[in-house]
Amino acid sequence: MKPFPLLFSVAVALLASVSASHGQGVLEPRPLSLPADIDIAELKDTGKAAIDDVMAKYADQDVRPDVKTYAILPLGKDVDAGYFTLQFENIFTQRAGAAGYTLYTRRDKVLEQVLVEIDFQQNYADAMKPETRQKLALEGVQAIIRPRIDIDRSANGAITVRANVEVFQVASGQKIWGYEATRVIGAKLTNEQLVHYLMIGLGGLAAVIILFWFLRALMRAARPR
Fold first, then answer.
1. How far, rounded to the nearest angstrom, does the alpha carbon of residue 224 sit from its chain's CA centroid?
2. pTM over 0.85, yes/no
3. Comparing C-alpha atoms, which of 133, 131, 128 is closest to residue 166?
4. CA distances (Å), origin 111, targets 16, 75, 88
5. Domain ranges in the chain?
């Protein structure tokens, strides 16, 4: 092969590689770890309600009237490739938009470019670095919202969904607000738990019957003859 065609092919390959790396956008979130046998539709509704509680709290308190422009960082772990992140964005817009707040999301070129540059994947430390905050400030972003969703299952089978946000001022990097709301999905007992509680119930019933017959025997013995 002649040198020029070879060099040309290498150059094209390099350009394609660079273009691909810059065109990937924000990375897709990793799957959120979920309890076994969970109802995804019920989880989504419960999580959405918890997120609404958090955002309503912030909008109602009007913590910093001077801070009007926000950027919500996408969750690194989510369901359905970003469902809860979308709920944080939509509900913030609904709740806080009425108070005059504006929001940058991962779909806005300004925030997307910054997230791509820091190779963001729930790496909140990088998002709070001075150089990152400076880039956001130059675009007019005054505060960063860091959301979080946690899901826990208790011993009785009840599932607790926690929606948490922390708000940081871009100029100083200081936390200006934080709040967590919880919602519970009703307990769904396993077969082993059902058997366990049934045995407890039967044991209690047997104890009541024995006590009843014992008291009855005492009353008969106490009767005058």
1. 73
2. no
3. 128
4. 24, 14, 16
5. 23-185, 190-225
